[in-house]
Amino acid sequence: MTTPYPPPAAQPANDKTTLFGVLGIVFAVCCPIVGIIFSVLSLNAAKKAGKPQTLAIIGFVVAALSIIVGIIYQVSARS
Question: What is the per-residue DSSP string for 11-75?
């Protein structure tokens, strides 16, 4: 008597929401424009997959703060 094998585990969806979100946050610190691009990609992937958009929003905020800090640094360096 053979026992049936358990059904294979469901494969996770092949979406890039988390990957693009993390890359958006990391690049937002050193290169805000690239961070914004990856955050937009993460936002679109999250909408398509029905996932939370938290990482994309964090990427946008970090990129904005990085741009603001860069402007303040440039203004203060010229004074």
Answer: PPP---HHHHHHHHHHHHHH-HHHHHHHHHHHHHHHHHHT---HHHHHHHHHHHHHHHHHHHHHH
Cβ distance 56 to 39 under 8 Å? yes
Cβ atoms 48, 58 nearer than 8 A: no
* Tens digits of residue pLDDT in 7-34: 666 555 567 899 999 999 999 999 999 9
Structure pTM?
A: 0.79
| 49 Cβ contact partners less than 8 Å away, ≥ 6 residues apart | 13, 15, 17
